[in-house]
Amino acid sequence: MLKIENLNVRYGVIEAIKDVSFEIKQGEIVALIGANGAGKTTILHAISGLLKPAGGKILLEDKDITKTGADKIVMMGLAQVPERRRVFAEQTVEENLELGAFTRKDKEGIAKDLEMIYTRFPRLKERRKQLAGTLSGGEQQMLAMGRALMAKPKILLLDEPSMGLAPLLVKEIFSIIEDINNQGTTVLLVEQNAKMALGIADRAYVLETGEIVLTGTGEELASSDAIKKAYLGG
Amino acid sequence: MNISQFFLQLINGLNIGSIYALVALGYTMVYGIAKLINFAHGEIIMVGSYTVFVCTTLMGMPIWLSIPVSIIVCAGLGICIEKVAYKPLRNASRIYLLITAIGISFFLQSLFQLIFTSNPKSFPTIIQLPPLTLGSFSISANYYLTFVVSVILMIVLDRFVKLTKTGRAMRAVSEDQGAAQLMGININKTISITFAIGSALAAVAGILYSSSYPLINPFMGSTLGIKAFIAAVVGGIGIIPGAVLGGFILGIIESLTKAYISSQMTDAIVFLVLIVVLVFKPAGLLGKNRKEKV
């Protein structure tokens, strides 16, 4: 579904991502875990076309999207829930969701999906006329997820969906991610919260200072000693 | 103080204020989307007026046709300036953009000075409607038409930005360019449209202004541009209703100053208003500090 080959990203002279390769197959949940500054967000930005890689290839369903514009990538079926949600604070919840469907032209489909999002996130329906900036952190996360789903993506990228949320909310968000996956959307999940991410991931990659150092199934990594020490608190 | 004189000055203020507002809208929209003070915006006004002059006086085109031609020329010029001068610098430091904008402004002034010399040209009479009589007042057609046209354009713009898909894309880009791209919004296209709309409004402003003050010269855009820029900052740069409010406030202050204090003091007082606003409300009258929830 999504294949990253020898990706290199530079910020000026700094090599942020060095020869990173990984793959997400259709229907999987793949987690990319690593500490702050490991380069997780940089990789997601490169995939979504917000950053130009210095080298390497990104293939979406076997099509090379390395040089494709960010807007075209969304049209090809890849959506991202960015770090810190980045909802449009000055627009209403409903306007945010409609912006998620920006690339779509099927009015009926959009209306149907809007109802589907409201069923999945009833709190968003209650607050549909409210400005997104007035929502709580958890509600904003749900809005950001709903907004990305409005694009009807084949593959969904989530950047730190647990950031700044209470443990109970984190559980809720993660069960929603599993649910989205069960309904047929492939998921690439980037997380610092390794425990939660490995709990739902089919496979995972561990990123350290711009390089992939470990890979395996979610269970394998969760029980690996190195991971336990570094990310799971012993 | 004579009430009727005061009333007339108020109408004067609304007239020039609505022109400031139209121009300020261009500054504020471009700033909101591209985070750039487009100092060449004033020159678009001048180009708009000269286009009408060339079309009618030199080429003998009917006036009704010269107006849309002027609007299209200015919209196209706005898009070209962005593509040629600003787009290559999009990731550069802001100061380079600012210097480039001033450069474009000088370039256009000099170009028009070369072509048309700096001698003022007389602008054709466009508005041939009878004056409006309200009791003992008679308001010239230029005045009420300027006001009416401006207000209509502002309402149309407001509806456009709130209700159309393109308008919503513009609001999204102005709030968070990266997030807007993740929605599939094409940033380049959105920026071009913004420049086109802003420049088209400047063309209309130029035509209305030149109808009231029918002598045009290659430098007419700079003072008007600076005043409109102040209006945009006073109202809160990047905020559309702010530009309208700032424009009217500035126009009224100007005309009342001319009438009751001293016409030489006008500019000094306008700048004083700017300073006072910036001291007490640095983000402008309608500006607010954005808060982010984490």
Automatic annotation (TrEMBL), chain A:
Q: Which SMART domains does its entry note?
A: AAA
Coiled-coil annotation: which residues? none
Entry's family note: Belongs to the ABC transporter superfamily.
Q: Which PANTHER family match?
A: HIGH-AFFINITY BRANCHED-CHAIN AMINO ACID TRANSPORT ATP-BINDING PROTEIN LIVF
Which stretches are transmembrane?
Answer: none
Q: Which GO terms describe its molecular function?
A: ATP binding; ATP hydrolysis activity; branched-chain amino acid transmembrane transporter activity
Q: Name one Pfam family in it.
A: ABC_tran
Q: Name one GO biological process term.
A: L-amino acid transport
Descriptive protein name: Branched-chain amino acid transport system ATP-binding protein
* Keywords recorded for this protein, A-Z: Amino-acid transport, ATP-binding, Nucleotide-binding, Transport
Where is the ABC transporter domain positioned along the sequence? 2-234
Keyword Electron transport in the entry? The reply is no
Gene3D superfamilies linked: P-loop containing nucleotide triphosphate hydrolases
Q: Which domain of life is it from?
A: Bacteria
The keyword ATP-binding belongs to this UniProt entry's keyword annotation:
yes
Which InterPro entries does the record cross-reference, listed alphabetically?
AAA+_ATPase, ABC_branched_ATPase_LivF/BraG, ABC_transporter-like_ATP-bd, ABC_transporter-like_CS, BCAA_Transport_ATP-bd_LivF, P-loop_NTPase
Automatic annotation (TrEMBL), chain B:
Membrane listed as a keyword: yes
Question: Which residue windows are transmembrane per the record?
Answer: 6-27, 65-86, 95-116, 141-161, 191-209, 229-253, 265-284
Q: Which GO terms describe its cellular component?
A: plasma membrane
Cell compartments where the protein resides: Cell membrane
Is Acetylation set as a keyword in this record? no
CDD domains attached here? TM_PBP1_LivH_like
One Pfam match, given by its short name, reads BPD_transp_2
Chief location: membrane
Q: How does it sit in the membrane?
A: Multi-pass membrane protein
One biological process term from GO is: L-isoleucine import across plasma membrane
Q: Which keywords, in A-to-Z order, does the entry hold?
A: Amino-acid transport, Cell inner membrane, Cell membrane, Membrane, Transmembrane, Transmembrane helix, Transport
Q: Which GO terms describe its molecular function?
A: L-isoleucine transmembrane transporter activity; L-leucine transmembrane transporter activity; L-phenylalanine transmembrane transporter activity; L-valine transmembrane transporter activity
Which protein family is it in?
A: Belongs to the binding-protein-dependent transport system permease family. LivHM subfamily.
Q: What is this protein called?
A: Branched-chain amino acid transport system permease protein
What is the scientific name of the source organism? Anaerorhabdus furcosa
